[in-house]
Amino acid sequence: MTHHPRSLALAAAIAALALPALADSVNVYSSRHYDSDDALYQEFTKETGIDVNRIEAKADELIARLEAEGKNSPADVFITVDVGRMARAEQAGVLQPFSSDLIEARIPQHLRHPDNLWFGIAQRARIIFYARDRVEHPPVTYEALTDPEWKGRICIRSSSNVYNQSLLASLIEIHGEEAAKEWAAGIVANMARPPQGGDTDQLRGLVSGECDIAVANHYYFLRGFDGNVSGLSAGIENIGWVWPNQNGRGAHMNLTVAAQTRSSPNPEAATALLEFLTGDWAQQYFAGQTHEYPAVPGVGLDPGTARLGLFIPDSTTGTDAYSRNAARAQTIFNEVGWD
Ligand code: FE
Fold this sequence. Notes:
Blueprint: H1 5-16, E1 25-30, H2 37-48, E2 51-56, H3 59-69, E3 77-81, H4 83-92, E4 95-96, H5 101-106, E5 119-131, E6 154-155, H6 162-175, H7 177-190, H8 199-208, E7 213-217, H9 218-226, E8 239-242, E9 252-261, H10 267-277, H11 280-290, E10 293-294, H12 303-306, H13 320-324, H14 326-336
Parallel strand pairs: 1-2, 1-3, 6-7
Antiparallel strand pairs: 3-9, 4-9, 5-7, 5-8, 5-9, 5-10
Helix pairs in contact: 3-4, 6-7, 6-14, 7-14
The structure holds fe (iii) ion (FE).
């Protein structure tokens, strides 16, 4: 264990308060890869003296690694996007409940696992987009996407994508399995083309004229305003957006998710980092870098995200339903032939 001057000073201060000494470092496995996150972790180190070591890879690779390393894993914290992916870590048994009254107070209940196995640090909305010049009255609910009016007009990506799995998992929770299956079949019937590409490609379909309606996470659209996203930015003024189900439960929200790992060798440092991520500054910075919505209520938005205006998020469907219903969602996709 090495001590640089800052952590020695910190250790002395902590000893004076008769608190347990903090570890020098915390190890983060993250599937989120943005250079801008560096500044976030540097700020944490500046405030606490705790160094952050990050290993970045795809979520499934990190989960496999956590499983293989078992109780010898050096990881303290796991960060990924989409509750559906965090559910795989949950099922692999590589998480433990975080222990922090502060996190429970800061993060609304519907954005946390009921046993505190994970919590949201930022929110992403999966919403409806449309071509303004071809659609006068776009569908205003997820349910309305199955209306025969939209036959051959909807672009949405493949069912192997976790974003769609979580959306369908939410519909299973809200309407039951049979109705969710009917919905999925209705979407298949209305597809403009076999599912292909990522969310940006669905928006590109609106620009190219291949589709009139698209379903995508909100930030892919906002990136089109930031810079030159080929096939999107030049035609973005013709894309309108709908916040779905505003007269009902609200828009489907997913999460960038953080958790403490089961093996965590530096639990105090893990808690300190997780708590830091719920602070006002970190919330605004973290969400702002990716045009996500903060998980903590009342934290301001970056100007790019504020462009989409005010909306009602679905705060009645617990996000843990996305993990509970993930397997059933995949079965339904297979049954209805959603590629
Ligand atoms: Fe994404």
